[in-house]
Structure formats: structure tokens, C-alpha cells
């Protein structure tokens, strides 16, 4: 075997053809090759000592992100907001919250990213606004104003449509009374987030114009927040859009008129048999956030069992390297770990198995998930976290790394609700506020450290960078491997069945080449035999240090607990599929 890892040299900044379009007739292909890093500007880096992260601070940390290897940022809402829902309660769609900077600072970020060959995706919250948005203020004050019809009202709430609120622990329903308007308004989220009437043509034009505004400032695409609630029944009569796909098609058309490489990613946590709807046969969203994958992969890795991975592939449409179905894959995000896509028995098992607060507090929230980070779910086991990222980066789709997971940050259950998993980035534990800010701790947007439980807040970036065995460097190596493997974005993926239930193997076939990825979900060592139709002399180690032997159309792999191996080579026989 070849004992030298192919990725031990200098990391490449991007695959040679990273921005080449795929063979699907003109759809932009850059996002399929990208590795995305998700962050919140206000909790990433404070540049001026006021306790709030800002755009200048983010710019100062771009070297870190470039060293990690990511080539696209997804930044969460940065618009003016009362921040009663972490910025997803937008008060002005066309500006920057002054605590985070200015439009000029935003433009400077775009310029810095362009200079580094990096892309930028921003959140667009189009389902609802804050009650402090000018539209709502004008709507409540004047029933004859066009803005009144931007929202959904009823004067007879007992006769109106009712459905379950998305935050059932904190909201009694979907209607709240406004004393100024003298009516109830409809909201699927918190009561301070009134739903927009997206069936109103004036509202639709506003939404299209907002997207155009940010694209003209250099944004490369959007994560469309709450795409599923946007098209659910709304208002007194539970009306729906006549053609829900039209709204997404038109948004995409208008976006592409400004930037022909703009991409739309949907946060559409819908039922698996409904997911294909959002792609619109190629005219809808470019990719969907893979909530089925998130629950199944993260659970499977956590319990050391491969059946959830098999089930994931059964539940969702296959990613299509030359078609319209594509996934944005993630292990954890900035919300609770939503388990509703697991079968009932597994959900109940996960509810108890991962319910941990160290000092007995409960992490379960909203009746659907845990407000824990990846390090909490995996008991701080960096080997398991590294293996999970290797699996994430080897799956078909675009991988998204959540800020802080690459160094093993923990949740802080002292913080309310989802804020537990949204604490500031820990740069250097030897510095005040772990290097996030020079402000007094009480002035921070969110405390860096809570009282927490012993031993969970040590993770930081400074202690890991440059250490080959650290979690940061192992995640960076996996990102580098992903960039050197165009097979993942362009190849046909298939499951490689192995005997052991705590092992997982899959492969990609592309252009006569095979890429095989093997992951040991168990804590102890395993040996597995997998099909691998590559000549032994041609087998190339891409990632991982496991022993392997290629012979007779297969490969025998010996892996330590939570180890992984990526192999590739020219396919023997018919020259490829």
C-alpha cells in the first residue's frame, strides 16, 4: 500500500475547476464545490471593544477562515433588529445594524472576500418581520394604508384559522392582539414576528427588490429562512399562494438577472416526500438544507450505528451531479438539534441519550430537539467530532461547517433557549473573553463563558492551530481533501455494503475514477472488507491514516475507533460508468 497521505503537503486553496459549471445547462456550479462556514457577525470578533462582534472584526479573522480552508461564508442576519430572535426579527432589510458596522463595512467585507476568491451567502428572512419594522408600524396605524395588507389580520379571532405555533413552549397560538390596530395579527413564529402576506403582489415586489439590493452589493446568494412556513396556509381564511413554486421561481429569476451565478438555498424543513417540490424541476431552489441528513447522520455517529445513514439515503431524493437535486449538509447549526425526522423510537432514544446538562439541567427544547453543540452530543470526544466532519465532507452535497464546531466548542445552558449554542467564538483562552472582545464581560452581546459545568469551556482556536493532531487541523485536512476530490460534486454516489453495523462505506464513480470513503462509527478498532475495483498500485490515500490492503477487487481496511479513510484510483475493467 501507499503509506503516504496525499494531503500532507500544502493545502490547496480550491479545486482546479472549483467554479466550473456542471453539465446541467448553465446552472452555476460553484456552490457544489464550495465548503461553507456559517457564522454570526455579532458573536465572531469584536474589533472596537464595545462587546459586539462586527464586520471589521470578521475581516480581521479572514486569515483564520482561509487557513481552515473554507471558501464560502454564510452569515446570519446582520440587519437592524431588536434582537428578540437573534436578528431573525428584521426591522430594516436594506441596512446594517449599527452595532455591527455599516453598509461601507459590509462592502469592505465583500471586497476582501473577492480578493481571496471567497464567496458570501447571507440570510434573507422573507416570511416575517419584526413588529418594529416600518411596514408593520404603518400597517397598524392606518388600516387604509397599503402596508396594512402586507400582514394578515382578523377582527374575529374565534372564527379564524388556527394552527400550532413553531415555538409551542413560548406562544399560545398564531394570533396576537395589537391595541393600535384593534385587531389580531397572524404569526407562525414569536408574537413579535408578524407573518408577511406573501400572496400580496406588493409584498412580493418588496422581497424581490431586497434580494436585488444585496446582490448589487456583491452577495453571491441567499439562505432563504423559513421557506416552508412561507407557503403554508395563513391568515383568517388559511389562504395559500395559488402557485407557491412561482414565488421561488420568480425570486430566482430576478436574482439571476443581477448575478447569473447567484444561488438560492432553502431552509425547508418539510416532510421527505415533499422536498422535491422546492427544487421545482430545476427552476426553484438550487439546494435544500438537509434536515433529514442532519438528524440521521449526527444521531448515527453519536450512537455508533450505521442504520440511520442507510435510512437517510432512503428518505431523500438522490443528489444529482448533473441535475437539479442538491443538498446543503450539516452536522449542527445555530438552532436546536431537531430530531423530528427520526423514526419515533429513535427520537425518544435520542431525547434521553443526549439529554445532558452536566449538573442535571435539561437541554430539550420546543418539544423537538436539544440545544447542544456537537461537542456536547459527543462528550467532548474530538476523535468522534473529527470523524463526523470527515463523513460530512465526503457526502454528496455542499458541506456546511458551523462556527466553533471545528475547535469543539460547547453549549452554555445558562443561556436561554437557542442562545445556548450561539455563544461567541473562543479565539484564545488566555485572553479576556477568550479573545472575542476587550469589553467588560457584562457588556458582551452574549457571555463567552457561563457557569456551565466543569471542563467544557477550554476549547479555543489558539491552542489547536498548528498542532497536527488537533481537531482544528483534522477538520482543515478533511476540508482540503474535499477540495481535491471533484468526484464528490460530480460523481455518482453509491453505498458500499459492509458486514459490520458500526461501519459505513460509500463511493463515488466519476470519469473512470473511484473514490471510496470508509468510516468507523465505533469507539474500538474494526477491520472491514469493501469492494474497491482499483489496481493496488494505483490506489491513492486521500485522507486518514488507517492501514489498508488492496487485492482481488476489494480493500481490507483496519481502523482505530472513530477513524476514517478516503481512497481513490482509476477504475479497472470497463473504464468507468
Strand fraction: 15-25%
Q: Which secondary-structure class do the elements indicate?
A: alpha/beta
Task: For the record, give the distance between the C-alpha atoms at the N and C termini, rounded to a whole number.
Answer: 25 Å
Q: Rounded to an integer, what's the Rg over CA atoms? A: 24 Å
What is the CATH C level class of the largest domain, in words? Alpha Beta
Number of domains: 3
Overall form:
globular
**Largest sheet, described in full?**
8 strands, parallel, barrel
Q: What's the pLDDT, averaged over the residues?
A: 91
CATH architectural arrangement of the largest domain: Alpha-Beta Barrel
CATH topology of the largest domain: TIM Barrel
* CATH fourth-tier homologous superfamily of the largest domain: Glycosidases
Ranges with pLDDT <50 over ≥5 residues?
A: 1-27
Helical residue percent band: 10-25%
Amino acid at each position: 500500500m501507499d503509506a503516504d497521505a496525499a494531503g500532507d503537503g500544502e493545502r490547496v486553496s480550491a479545486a482546479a475547476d472549483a467554479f466550473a459549471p456542471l453539465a446541467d445547462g448553465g446552472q452555476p456550479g460553484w456552490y457544489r464545490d464550495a465548503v461553507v462556514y456559517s457564522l454570526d457577525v455579532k458573536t465572531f470578533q469584536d474589533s472596537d471593544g464595545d462587546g459586539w462582534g462586527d464586520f471589521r472584526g470578521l475581516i480581521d479573522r479572514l486569515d483564520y477562515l482561509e487557513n481552515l480552508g473554507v471558501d464560502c461564508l454564510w452569515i446570519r442576519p446582520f440587519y437592524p433588529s431588536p434582537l428578540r430572535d437573534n436578528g431573525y426579527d428584521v426591522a430594516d432589510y436594506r441596512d446594517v445594524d449599527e452595532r455591527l458596522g455599516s453598509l461601507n463595512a459590509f462592502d469592505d467585507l465583500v471586497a476582501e472576500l473577492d480578493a481571496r476568491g471567497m464567496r458570501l451567502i447571507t440570510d434573507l428572512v422573507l416570511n416575517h418581520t419584526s413588529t418594529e419594522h416600518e411596514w408593520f408600524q404603518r400597517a397598524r396605524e392606518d388600516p387604509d394604508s397599503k402596508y396594512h395588507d402586507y400582514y394578515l389580520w382578523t377582527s374575529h379571532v374565534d372564527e379564524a384559522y388556527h394552527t400550532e405555533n413553531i415555538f409551542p413552549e413560548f406562544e399560545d397560538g398564531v394570533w396576537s392582539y395589537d391595541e393600535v390596530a384593534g385587531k389580531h395579527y397572524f404569526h407562525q413564529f414569536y408574537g413579535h414576528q408578524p407573518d408577511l402576506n406573501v400572496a400580496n403582489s406588493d409584498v412580493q415586489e418588496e422581497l424581490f427588490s431586497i434580494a436585488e439590493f444585496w446582490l448589487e452589493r456583491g452577495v453571491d446568494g441567499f439562505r432563504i429562512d423559513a421557506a416552508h412556513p412561507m407557503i403554508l396556509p395563513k391568515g383568517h381564511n388559511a389562504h395559500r399562494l395559488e402557485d407557491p413554486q412561482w414565488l421561488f421561481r420568480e425570486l430566482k429569476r430576478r436574482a439571476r438577472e443581477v448575478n447569473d451565478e447567484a444561488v438560492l438555498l432553502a431552509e425547508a424543513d418539510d416532510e421527505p416526500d415533499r422536498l422535491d417540490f422546492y427544487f421545482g424541476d430545476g427552476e426553484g431552489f438550487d439546494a435544500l438544507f438537509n434536515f433529514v441528513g442532519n438528524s440521521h447522520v449526527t444521531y448515527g455517529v453519536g450512537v455508533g450505528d450505521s442504520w440511520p445513514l442507510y435510512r437517510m439515503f432512503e428518505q431523500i431524493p438522490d443528489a444529482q451531479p448533473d441535475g437539479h437535486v442538491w443538498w446543503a449538509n450539516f452536522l449542527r447549526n445555530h438552532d436546536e438539534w431537531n430530531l423530528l425526522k427520526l423514526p419515533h423510537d429513535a427520537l425518544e432514544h435520542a431525547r434521553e441519550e443526549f439529554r445532558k446538562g452536566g449538573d442535571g439541567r435539561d437541554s430539550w427544547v420546543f418539544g423537538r430537539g436539544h440545544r447542544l453543540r456537537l461537542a456536547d452530543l459527543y462528550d467532548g470526544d474530538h476523535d468522534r467530532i473529527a470523524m463526523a466532519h470527515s463523513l460530512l465532507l465526503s457526502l454528496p452535497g455542499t458541506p456546511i461547517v458551523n462556527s466553533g464546531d471545528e475547535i469543539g466548542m460547547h453549549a452554555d445552558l445558562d443561556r436561554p433557549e437557542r442562545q445556548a449554542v450561539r455563544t461567541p467564538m473562543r479565539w484564545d483562552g488566555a485572553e479576556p473573553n477568550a479573545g472575542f472582545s476587550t469589553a467588560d464581560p457584562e457588556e458582551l452581546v452574549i457571555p463567552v463563558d457561563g457557569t456551565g459545568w466543569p471542563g467544557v469551556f477550554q476549547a479555543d482556536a489558539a491552542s489547536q492551530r498548528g498542532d497536527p493532531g488537533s481537531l482544528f487541523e483534522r477538520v482543515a485536512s478533511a476540508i482540503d481533501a474535499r477540495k481535491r476530490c471533484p468526484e464528490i460534486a460530480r460523481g455518482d454516489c453509491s453505498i458500499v455494503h459492509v458486514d459490520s453495523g458500526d461501519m459505513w462505506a460509500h463511493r463515488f464513480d466519476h470519469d473512470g475514477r473511484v473514490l471510496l470513503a470508509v468510516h468507523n462509527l465505533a469507539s474500538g478498532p474494526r477491520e472491514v472488507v469493501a469492494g474497491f475495483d482499483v489496481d493496488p498500485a494505483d490506489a491513492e490515500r486521500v485522507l486518514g491514516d488507517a492501514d489498508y490492503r488492496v487485492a482481488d477487487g476489494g480493500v481490507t481496511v483496519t481502523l482505530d475507533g472513530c477513524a476514517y479513510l478516503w481512497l481513490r484510483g482509476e477504475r479497472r475493467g470497463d473504464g468507468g460508468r
